[in-house]
Design goal:
The protein is of the alpha/beta class. It is 38% helix and 20% strand. It folds into four domains: 168 residues, 2-Layer Sandwich (Dna Ligase, domain 1); 125 residues, D-amino Acid Aminotransferase, Chain A, domain 1, CATH 3.30.470; 98 residues, Phosphohistidine domain (Glucose Oxidase, domain 1); 289 residues, TIM Barrel. The protein starts with 9 loop residues before the first helix and ends with a helix.
């Protein structure tokens, strides 16, 4: 039984069961239950003689999707069709029956409790199964299905990629009486960044799975333990709840009645009771806790507790949640989008300070494209064969970056370019990698000397001579930790806030932001980094190898975000970028490639590479990646959509069952959005970089007119606003994935218009979340005043 285990039994019963047993031992209110131990699983496969065949079956090439499917099917077959040893069967059923009351069958939750769910460099959490409202007739099968979930395609692939032997991972199962929750949620017993005595509680109607999974936006309550009072109450619009169906016993999602949608879930008294229990949990463990809880018939139950691991080591135990972050967030957003005046004033000969040092020794300056201050030796890169000269900790200086340079960019401590703006390849990739960068210096490669020690300030847009006390050269950069918000308490918003990803290597860092999904994953960087045009690569290596390259890149991001949606855009590279690759000699020399043969027009005119892209998506769907959504660039009209759907069907993708959509990047697509909706799209996503340049006739890469580039121009906003309004009328989701999505002014406009989601740069996700929350709260207040 759970009361017989504690924190020292993780290796036997897994993390979930051990935590629950520890809470029971501390006298806290935990629903009764028992654990089917990891040893039971191991004994089951060994005594049945299926262990060798099982591990052999899943020892496959993780890049072979057909082999992965066969491995999953065979593992499931071996486990589900092998009968329980009679003693094990009777023991499980006996313990289950003891949980019933007054002769009635108990409804239980059956949860996987793997013994290796959270390792320092690997996380298996979320890969195994959980089943709710299970009764006796299904119990044994659900236990086996938890065991079998160790061998899904995703789990097999993950362990193979991490070099983690399948035979080293065991799994226990928790069987626990269900709490038919009337209200539930999560609680942080102390401030999750500073450790201050401040409790944060999220609450919604019904079962807690709705809160944990992100299905519903819960209420948010902040309680100051020092003053013993509720500090802040944010009541969300709780549109749905998860409850047990009285007839079938299954968990179902229901619409919340109008009278409860905007009703406060927790009273001050209930908050006080939760806080008291939270303090007991924290005192027991001696460290702040992240607690899942539920309330039924006036009683509070603790469902799970785990330590908060995000409190800074230098935290002084003081501070307020949200306030300081919002203020700094706007400044950060301004820096990220180039709205600040620092770089401009430096460029005009002004002075500024870096870490208190005078700016008289500035060698070159430009746009601060990616924040941070680093010192290192200059490495000038004029040609691709110079990339090997860039070593860990160097400051890479080049005219402009290209996809082939990404490996060197990952090694570099900082990036400097002569050309480019805030939407250039260098700016986007540097931000995603978390590498400080200054772009558009104009003369960096000519002024800076190879090997010279410099300090790059990605906030101010300056490169100074020598090292700086505020920089720490030579230390390994930790991009994931840098991307993770100081507090994991995500602002609850009705508008989803997603993240843009340009390269697969940024997937883990993007996921650490807590975004609601990926609003834009670009495929072209995966393709261009191959060094060959798609046609040349297919000719040299075959269509299957080309598909494999795409699958590898997409899957890295899809795994990090699963089950959150990942929206992947098919290739959209202009001809001048293809011309730089092997096989690109035949590419047309276009006067303005941005207005030329790119996006969906190229894909439909030259369909073989496009067909292989779609074939890769079809294989990903077959692997179980149902969180993928395909997005098509530079679509103008329904004729383009007809071509898209024809190729999707030929690739084996049913447009009716998989979510897909188009980019709104031209005035034509915005004006014809109703026609596009009728053609079957599920969503429309604004690419504001292109929509702005095509609306205003401004080439964003042309220095003579770049100052006229304005995503907030009234004409651009009208196109966006009218498109959102039409899409809301016809039931099509809208989103934005362009650079402007990270600007507070654009965020406010989009939320007011009713956009479905906003996708921001990695470094701006939390700032956008706060901006969305502020705007939604203001609109809510305005509506009731």
């Amino acid at each position: 039984m759970l009361e017989d285990v504690d924190a020292g039994d993780v290796g036997t019963v897994g993390g979930k069961a051990a935590s629950l047993g520890e809470l029971i031992g501390a006298g806290l209110p935990v629903p009764p239950g028992f654990a089917v131990t990891a040893g039971t699983y191991r004994t089951f496969i060994e005594e049945a003689g299926i262990d060798v065949e099982l591990f052999d079956a899943v020892d496959v090439d993780p890049e072979d999707s057909a082999a992965l499917r066969e491995a999953e099917a065979r593992a499931e077959e071996l486990i589900l069709e092998t009968p329980f040893p009679e003693p094990v069967r009777e023991e499980i059923l006996s313990q289950y029956r003891a949980m019933g009351e007054d002769g009635a069958e108990a409804f239980v939750a059956v949860r996987s409790s793997a013994t290796a769910e959270d390792l320092p460099d690997s996380s298996f959490a979320g890969q195994q199964e959980t089943f709710l409202n299970v009764r006796e007739e299904d119990l044994l099968r659900r236990v086996k299905e938890c065991w079998a979930s160790l061998f899904t395609q995703r789990a097999i692939y993950y362990r193979q990629q991490r070099g983690f032997p399948h035979e080293d991972v065991d799994i226990a199962v928790v069987v626990q009486r269900m709490v038919d929750a009337e209200k539930s949620g999560v609680m942080f017993t102390s401030h999750p960044s500073t450790g201050a005595p401040q409790v944060t509680i999220e609450a919604a109607w019904g079962l807690g799975e709705a809160v944990v999974s992100g299905t519903v936006s819960p209420d948010n309550y902040v309680y100051d333990r020092g003053r013993a009072e509720v500090d802040e109450v944010t009541v969300a619009d709780k549109k749905v709840e998860m409850v047990k169906d009285a007839e079938t016993g299954e968990t179902v999602q229901l619409d919340v009645g109008e009278d409860r949608r905007t009703e406060r879930v927790l009273s001050d008294a209930e908050i006080g009771d939760l806080v008291a229990l939270g303090e007991r949990v924290e005192d027991h463990y001696g460290t702040p806790q992240d607690v899942e809880w539920a309330i039924y018939d006036g009683e509070i139950y603790m469902l799970q507790s785990r330590p908060i691991t995000t409190i800074r080591e230098d935290a002084g135990g003081e501070g307020e949640a949200g306030g300081g972050g919002d203020t700094g967030g706007d400044a950060a957003a301004g820096a990220a989008t180039g709205d600040g005046g620092t770089a401009g004033s430096a460029a005009n000969g002004g002075t500024s300070a870096v870490g208190g040092e005078e700016d008289a020794d500035v060698l070159v300056d430009g746009l601060g494209a990616s924040p941070g201050v680093v010192s290192g030796a200059v490495r000038i890169v004029h040609k691709l064969d110079h990339l090997d000269q860039v070593q860990d900790g160097d400051v890479m200086v080049t005219e402009m970056t290209m996809p082939d340079m990404v490996p060197a960019m990952k090694r570099a401590a900082g990036i400097v370019t002569d050309e480019g703006g805030m939407t250039s390849h260098a700016a986007i990739i540097s931000r995603e990698l978390g590498v400080p960068a200054v772009v558009g210096t104009g003369n960096g490669t000519r002024v800076l000397e190879d090997g010279r020690q410099v300090t790059l300030d990605g906030d101010k847009g300056t490169i100074r001579a020598g090292e700086s006390a505020s920089a720490e050269p030579g230390e390994e950069f930790e991009p994931v930790e840098a991307a993770r918000p100081e507090t994991p308490v995500k602002p609850m918003t009705a508008t989803e806030v997603k993240v843009n990803v340009s390269i697969p290597e940024a997937g883990e860092r993007a996921a650490a932001t807590g975004a609601d999904g990926v609003g834009l994953l670009r495929i072209e960087h995966m393709v261009l980094s191959l060094g060959k045009t798609p046609e040349q690569y297919i000719a040299d290596h075959g269509a299957r190898a080309y598909q494999d390259e795409l699958i590898e890149g997409v899957r890295r991001v899809a795994d990090e975000f699963y089950p959150r949606p990942v929206r992947v855009r098919t290739i959209d590279a202009p001809t001048d970028e293809f011309r730089e690759l092997e096989g690109g000699a035949g590419e047309p020399a276009e006067h303005n490639p941005m207005l030329g043969w790119r996006g969906i027009r190229r894909s439909l005119d030259k369909p073989e590479p496009f067909q292989q892209e779609l074939a890769a998506f079809a294989r990903l769907y077959d692997m179980g990646y149902d969180n993928l959504e395909v997005m098509f660039p530079l679509v103008n009209d329904a004729k383009d959509v007809e071509g898209i759907t024809r190729h999707m069907r030929e690739a084996g993708i049913d447009p009716e069952t998989h979510r897909w959509g188009v980019m709104i990047e031209t005035p034509a697509s915005a004006l014809l959005i109703e026609e596009l909706a009728e053609a079957g799209i599920d969503f429309a996503s604004f690419g504001t970089n292109d929509l702005t340049q095509y609306t205003l006739a401004v080439d964003r890469n042309n220095e003579h007119v770049a100052d006229r580039f304005d995503e907030l121009h009234p004409a651009v906003l009208r196109l966006i606003g009218d498109t959102i309004e039409t899409c809301r009328e016809v039931g099509v989701d809208t989103s934005i994935c362009g650079q402007a999505g990270s600007k507070p002014e654009m965020v406010e406009f989009l939320v007011e218009k009713g956009v479905s989601s906003i996708s921001a740069n990695i470094d701006a996700v939390r700032d956008v979340q706060h901006e969305v929350k502020r705007t939604e709260q203001r609109l809510l207040l305005d509506s009731v005043r």
